[in-house]
Structure formats: C-alpha cells, structure tokens
Amino acid sequence: MTIFPESFVVFQGQDCLIPPQDAYNMRFLDEPSLAASIKPEAVCWHFSQIPSDLLSPSSDHYAYSVFEFDDRKYGAIQIQDNDDILIKRPGLDEAIAFPVRELVVSYPSRFSRFMLIAKAHGQWASVSRFCGACGSLLVDAKENDEVRERLDDNAYAARFCPRCKRIFFPRMSPAVIVLVYRENSILLGHNVRFPRNRHSLIAGFVEIGETLEETAIREIREEAGIEVKKLHYVLSQPWPFPDSLMIGFIAEWASGEARPDRNEIDHIAWYGADDLPELPLRGSIARYLIDSFIAGGFSNG
Q1: Alpha-carbon span 92 to 18, nearest angstrom
Q2: What are phi and psi of 257, to 5 degrees?
Q3: Beta bridge partners of 12
Q4: Residue 195 in contact with residue 281, Cβ under 8 Å?
Q5: Are 229 and 252 a contacting pair, CB within 8 Å?
Q6: I need a surface site. Which of 142, 174, 192, 224 has the fewest CB within 10 A?
C-alpha cells in the first residue's frame, strides 16, 4: 500500500522550493512577531500541484519519503540540482527558492525542526530508491502486507524490497563537533569549502569502530595538530546536509601548537571574544557552542 500525503515539501539542492502564492509569508525574516506565526503549510505544495510522475510508486527517477509532524503526514521530495526540465513543468515553474539553512536558522524552533526533518526525508528519498543488496526498486514498508516485521507507528519512511524482503530505515551519519578552548580563547578554523572569512569549530564524521570521544580526539589531532583534555558532551543537533547528527563537545587544550592540516583546514587560530572572525549562522550547533562559551555559559571556560 502506497502512503499518499496531501502536503509535500520540495527541495532542489540546498533550496526549498516554495509555492509562489505562499512565498510572501517568508518575507518576515526580520520581523520576529510575524515570523513566529509561520507554519509548515507555508512551504508545502498540495499533491495536486506536484507533477504526477513524481508521485508514481514505479518511478525510476524520483521517490518521496513520508514523515509525520504534529499528527499530520507530509511527503518530501529531493529534485536533482541539474534537473531544470522538471522544475519548469507546470506546477513547479513558478516556485520560489529559499535556502534551507536560512529557513532553519531564521525562524522559531518549531518551524525550524519541521524544516530539518523535511530536508532529511527529502535526502533519504533520493538515496533509497533501490535496494542496496539486489538492486530492485524499493517500496513503502509501512502498511505493506508483505512486511512481516512489526514497525513503529511513525516508521513511514521505512523502505522495503519486494524481491529480497529487506527493510531499510532512514540513514543518519554521526559526526562530532568540538569547541576547544585555551584560557579565554577558542580554536576556530577556516574549512576550504567555507565562504570568505567564515571560521568554525573542528568537526568530523565517526568512523567504523570508533567511539564519539575517540572521533573527537582524532579529528582535533588530524585537523589542528593538538591534544585535548577534559572532553565533555554538551548537546546534539540533526543537520541534514546531507544526513548528519552533529554531536557537540567542549574540550580544553592540553598540548601542541595549532596548525591547519592544509587538506580540509587552510587556516586555524585562537580567537578571543574581541577578535572573532565571521562565524557560522545562528541556529547551528557550532554557533550555539561559540556563543555559549563567549557568554561564560560553560563552567570549563
């Protein structure tokens, strides 16, 4: 049985494609009282507005992932960056593109959470069309009579292979991000993919067989050439760019001279509150850790 929600969120690359009749609601980035009233429907398309072949369960080009938010079902679709033909089709040809990161960090937490979930499901839909074991086209597992395994009530995104009977669940890649401090300074690096002078914290993906703590120590050693102590977990954040769970730590410098690895990081230095470079966007876990340290929010600092 195919699960068919009435409302869809459509993404292309790192943008959310918003129906033109609703796009005016998104003008209020600088007006908090108005932005607070933004609801998920402001970025959703009714199923009748979506090109029919996008919704075909037998499509070999796209799929959608279903998720539940506030007791309502939504679908998420991720369109390829270069698929200009599709977005010029009637229904999507007048869409207004908004950067997902801007929608996540500029709006209240409830709407931000909706966007994070929707983007993650759009990404999942784009990589879960085929079985990784036998190559067959996957279908919805939820409410499918062939699935014998009992699924959670909210497991709408689970995918099922009718041929080899495997079930696939949405993938999330754990990654650590660490604020390293030395007295009143914090370590910030410029990643080669960052714009202009933006600097952020040391971060990296967990490798097979590693604990989170081992990953944090390894990434700091590889990217900055230093050792740390007093490593403590702070908080986590889902970050679907493309499919991460960011796990935030704070640690104290122990030894070594900071130097960039010249592979991912091309500049790294210690910064105090009065000489900070361009920082990550507000709403990101990196910015939360930085702002909290500068404000004296961690007893370690």
Answers
A1: 9
A2: -100, 125
A3: 15, 79
A4: no
A5: yes
A6: 192
Q: The pTM is what?
A: 0.87
Distances (CA, A) of 191 to 7, 140, 265: 37, 39, 5
Cβ-based burial of 23 (10 A; exposed 0-12, middle 13-18, buried ≥19): middle
CATH architecture of 173-294: Alpha-Beta Complex (3.90)
Whole-number Å distance between alpha carbons of 55 and 77: 9
Identify the CA nearest to 101 among candidates 199, 189, 16: 16
Give the largest CA-CA distance in the chain: 62
Q: How many CB atoms lie within 10 A of CB 141?
A: 22
- Report helix, strand or coil for 127: helix
Length of the chain: 301
Q: What is the pLDDT of residues 195-217, one digit of tens each?
A: 889 999 999 999 999 999 999 99
Per-residue pLDDT reduced to its tens digit, 75-97: 999 988 888 777 777 678 888 88
Residue-range domain boundaries for the chain: 7-168, 173-294
